[in-house]
Specification:
It is built from ten helices and seven strands. The protein has 283 residues and is of the alpha/beta class.
Length: 283
Amino acid sequence: MNQYVFITGVSTGIGYATAVLLVQRGYHVFGSVRREEDGARLRAELGERITPLLFDVTDEAGVATAVAHIRATLNGQNLAGLINNAGISIAGPLMHLPLAKLRQQFAVNLFGLMDVTQQCLPLLGAAKAAPYPRGRIINISSVAGQIAYPFVGAYTASKHALEGLSDSLRRELLIYDIPVILIQPGTTATPIVAKVSAGMQQYGHTDYAPILQKLATQTIREREQHAVPVVKVAATIVQALESPRPKTRYAIPSRWLLGWLLPRSLPDRWFDWLVARQMEKGD
């Protein structure tokens, strides 16, 4: 079995939990970090089966250097998988969100992801003469890739875009037998949730201030009561990597009925009414 996997964003959260699980299962993990101290910590914790790579996904030259290092290590083999996990979540009402923030959201969650993917495709077997087994691409999306909530419009837009990009890429890569798989977690117990709540505070001068305060409190409560365990997301990623016939999507909502089934099945105006009620009550 091909034992090499590349994960972007392994210092914390889903990327870290996935790296730990894959190392335990005998894989060698290449993992991107943005700070040298995070790379040193990972080597101390996980040993020789992890190779930290210092770069940001928005740095094209840094991505190229990292991929060249992976190529040299593989020595003609294919990666078993590319797990595009690195991402950010920028919160705030779209009426007031600086366009620079919106561009940053897409630079990381979409354009950086696609740069990494394009540079790694030859290492996944994207050539007619490439050896088997071919690798897989696993993109970490979100329930926000299907459901739009207020005040996370930038993040939601980036994940909607990622879903469309992944569907098109999956169909284009059929000629190489390279699966493209989406993972769609709900609210997960990772640092990104706290960052979203903190990001709301800068809009305290707007008409949305009372609503944002309520929603920040609600987000914290949601995390405490219903957050998806990060190890569950990591286990699903491993399932997608190893399954003989992987699904195209793996949804992992925090609550199946309220967080997935109803928002996707209700008419838009009905769901708008529920959102309005939630903003009024803050619960």
